[in-house]
């Protein structure tokens, strides 16, 4: 069984983030809007504070996903955040500021998303945002206790949820490689974020490979978890990306950018091939 709860209240040392999370938690509760923390903030909470794995790059921003039923409910949410006196609407589509200088992205997902997994921002409709995987990531999020006083517990994207979201984000934003760097860290450390014992308890067939490799086994487990949490269409979209990126044509940007260093490129390719193999087995 994958971990579904973490207590990092004795480790978390960012009081501004605590206040942001507390304010968002209170507003969301009043409006009965489910939400979770995504992006680099979720990565840091999971890897660094939860498991002592230091990310390569730090973040000073925070990203939320709010499950809303309509644009009207999304507008109500933003107005309620502004009404706290802590958040400011700066006229950007999803970007707000907390106390003037901390960037907060308020991302809508859920019923507001179309059948292709996208939203088109109002009023001009000139910008699309791909939110594929948000529903699955939310359903498989984990609860994290951030602070005891004040009491703050929030849902954050799990490791498999982060891989899902960051793969689609990378595909949208490439050739930028920030998301790929995070993907590499998440894949290499997948066994270390609460999944290590699962190969003995649930996936002992991975131990029977005569060339057993701990990190490669973690990539296989990650592929199985992705296959397990994803809807059929989402799984198919992931396979489209991986089949294109691992085809051997071109310079393999996903593999290169997610490798820690040049000597790790062949090994990272092995990780991605393991993930694709497990996804393909279920999708077929």
Structure, explained:
47% of the residues lie in helices and 17% in strands. With 284 residues, the protein is an alpha+beta fold. α2 runs antiparallel to α5 (159-173) and α5 runs antiparallel to α6 (178-188). The longest helix has 19 residues, at 265-283. The chain is globular and about 60 Å long.
List descriptors.
Beta Polymerase, domain 2, five-stranded mixed β-sheet, 10 strands, alpha+beta, three-stranded mixed β-sheet, 284 residues, 2 domains, 47% helix
Secondary-structure class: alpha+beta
Helix content: 40-55%
> Which strand order spans the largest sheet, edge to edge or round the barrel?
2-3-6-5-4
Q: N-to-C terminal Cα separation, in Å?
A: 25 Å
Point out poorly predicted stretches.
none
Strand content: 15-25%
Shape: globular
What's the order of the H and E elements?
Answer: EHEHEHEEEEEHEEHHHHHHH
List the helices and strands and how they pair.
Blueprint: E1 5-7, H1 15-31, E2 35-38, H2 39-51, E3 62-68, H3 71-83, E4 87-89, E5 95-98, E6 102-110, E7 118-120, E8 128-130, H4 134-139, E9 142-147, E10 152-156, H5 159-173, H6 178-188, H7 198-201, H8 214-229, H9 232-245, H10 253-258, H11 265-283
Parallel strand pairs: 1-9, 3-6
Antiparallel strand pairs: 2-3, 4-5, 5-6, 7-8, 9-10
Helix pairs in contact: 2-5, 5-6, 8-11, 9-11
Question: What can be said about this structure in brief?
Answer:
By secondary structure, this protein is of the alpha+beta class. The protein has helices spanning 15-31, 39-51, 71-83, 134-139, 159-173, 178-188, 198-201, 214-229, 232-245, 253-258, 265-283; strands spanning 5-7, 35-38, 62-68, 87-89, 95-98, 102-110, 118-120, 128-130, 142-147, 152-156.
């Amino acid at each position: 069984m994958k971990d579904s709860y973490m207590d990092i209240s004795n480790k978390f040392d960012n009081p501004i983030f605590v206040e942001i999370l507390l304010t968002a938690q209170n507003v969301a509760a009043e409006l009965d809007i489910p939400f979770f923390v995504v992006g680099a903030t979720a990565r840091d909470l999971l890897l660094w504070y939860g498991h002592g794995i230091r990310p390569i790059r730090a973040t000073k921003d925070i990203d939320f996903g709010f499950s809303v039923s309509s644009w009207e409910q999304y507008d109500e949410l933003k107005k309620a955040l502004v009404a706290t006196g802590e958040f400011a609407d700066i006229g950007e589509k999803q970007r707000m500021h907390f106390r003037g200088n901390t960037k907060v992205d308020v991302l809508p997902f859920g019923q507001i998303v179309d059948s292709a997994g996208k939203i088109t921002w109002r009023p001009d409709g000139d910008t699309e945002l791909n939110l594929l995987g948000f529903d699955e990531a939310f359903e498989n999020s984990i609860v994290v206790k951030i602070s005891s006083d004040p009491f703050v517990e929030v849902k954050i994207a799990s490791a498999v949820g982060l891989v899902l979201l960051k793969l689609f984000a990378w595909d949208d934003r490439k050739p930028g490689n920030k998301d790929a760097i995070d993907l590499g860290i998440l894949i290499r450390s997948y066994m270390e974020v609460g999944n290590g014992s699962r190969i003995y308890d649930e996936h002992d067939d991975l131990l029977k490979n005569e060339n057993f490799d701990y990190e490669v086994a973690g990539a296989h487990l990650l592929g199985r978890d992705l296959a397990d949490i994803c809807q059929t269409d989402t799984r198919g979209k992931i396979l489209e990306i991986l089949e294109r990126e691992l085809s051997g044509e071109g310079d393999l940007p996903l593999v290169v950018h997610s490798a820690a260093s040049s000597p790790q490129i062949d090994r990272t390719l092995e990780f991605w091939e393991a993930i694709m193999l497990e996804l393909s087995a279920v999708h077929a």
